[in-house]
Amino acid sequence: MDYQSLIPVVGTVLSIRRQSSDCCSQLIALRTENGPVNFFLSSQTLVLGSVRIRPGMRIAACYDASLPVPLIFPPQYQAQLIAALRPDEQAYIGYFNSDLTSMNQDLSLNIARSTTILTSNGQGFDCTPANHVLLVCYTATTRSLPPQTTPRKIFVLC
Description:
Blueprint: E1 6-19, E2 22-32, E3 35-41, E4 46-47, E5 58-64, E6 76-85, E7 90-96, E8 108-109, E9 116-119, E10 132-138, E11 148-149, E12 153-157
Parallel strand pairs: 3-6, 4-6, 8-11, 9-12
Antiparallel strand pairs: 1-2, 1-5, 2-3, 5-6, 7-10, 10-12
């Protein structure tokens, strides 16, 4: 999977329901700042840390921007990757260089001892997260350019 073409949508899970007779796929309805968004969750969707998604939970659901989507309302996307977030957190996904700055200069990371660094399946990552595609869970950023943050959790998408 090309993680660099993923776009995160952050919202609160309103409902989860089975998709017709297929017991392996579900439709997740999210409430976002920009209105409702639906995501199809299949057996191919990577749920970071293998967290069980529940109504009321705040998540970042990522879709592949290179795939076609139907022009309907509310928007419906195929979820490629899902991460659970705390109520005050944001999510950013992108490639970070050796200085831990995203390639498009949107975010720069300051790693602290309290920062948890994991692989996509929830295992500890003992190497540097630099030069990888990362999903970063953070709360606040500086007003500098690029904005800097000390993330709570980083998922390294190997």
